[in-house]
Amino acid sequence: MALTKALGQFIADLSPNRVPDEAIRIARMGFIDCIGTMIVGRTEPCTQILKGVLAPGKGPATLYFSGEQSPGPEAGWINGTAAHALDYDDVALRGHPSTVLVPAILAEAEVLGATGQDMLIAYIAGYETWAEMVRRDVPMYHQKGFHPTGIFGAVGAAAACAKLRKLDATRTAIAIALGASQASGIMANFGTMTKPFHAGKSAHSGIMAARLAEAGFTANVDALEHPQGFLSAVSPQNNPDRSGDGKLGEDWAIIQHGLSIKKYPACYGTHRAIDAMLDLVGAHPVKPTDVKKVSVHFSSLTSNVLRNRQPDTGLAAKFSMEFAMASGLIAHRVSLSELTDPFVQRKDVQDMMRKVERDLTDETDAANPGSSPWEQVTIELTSGQVLQSERVTRARGHAERPLTDSQLHEKFADCLTSSGSAIPADVLFGRLQSMQSISARALTAVH
Question: What Å distances lie between residue 306 and 32, 96, 319, CA to CA?
């Protein structure tokens, strides 16, 4: 069966008794991490500007667990933007799946009165659809200037919302095709409010795709694999695999790839080097004034993503290896407190960034295209002493080096506490841990 139709059939047939327990566990972790970053991102300027411009009326969906209500499409748009506003959300499939899937699913689940189990199955449908797109092209989409979260997000969210709406196979395929026509997002806007906008717009697009398909809107059910379809359009080297239906439902991508949870609210391309720096200064106390030079060994492809070498805002600093190293050296952490305009603009931080050099390699990690096999930080002191970190192959929080349950809770609680959440962190965390047994509306209730 051709790909778009095969995905439609797979999603329409997907049921809880077919899904492994491990897939459910990972999906629940995606909800937990995304909701934490959504709540802490609600006050960011990009979220508030978007909300003000959209000016949504009252509706059945909740904005960032605050008690404010909105129609479903606008809720998905605003919540998706909030979840990605701080670049603190999870990572997989060369992008940020949860920041698109979770807001879209939450909004539609509230509208439909769906259950937590419905939401988890919808998440898996969206994840598997996203993974099937990524599987078909080895090169990094960043090379062509695409933001994977933007281009795959609309397709994945359409699949998830089609599952929530219990569409048949044909209408699910149409929803996926509609999502593909709404895919967008370019790397040139990284480090600005537009990057989180990509995530929010993808959530909105997925919601609208499923609603339109349900209402009888038409689209071609070969939109993914057609020579002029989605896969060909976004392929970095114009050579995607457009054949067949793969092994949908046999090899679960969500179990194979999992989710990597961020410890730092910055581009994931900085995380291994941050781990290396923090380990190094933890073992060897270093005075910033004694540093002559810092060298970071990492991928040339990642270097293209980290476009800002001398940022002067917190947003821009999220995409700067130089800032990541300066923050690690000076503050001994890279947290929400450091990724602010005042900290980035400090003279000692600006001076330290000028001492950071990029030692780039074209060697890539077969398991993580676009990344080097390892990263390493070297500090040269004015005394002539040279300190070198261990080689870091996986960041803390990576699916192969996961956070503990207590560390996941700690991040979640920090997000809610620092944002003044209307719902106590322990209460909401408890709801999410048992979300299979409650409704969407019970999950988002403020009281």
Answer: 27, 16, 5
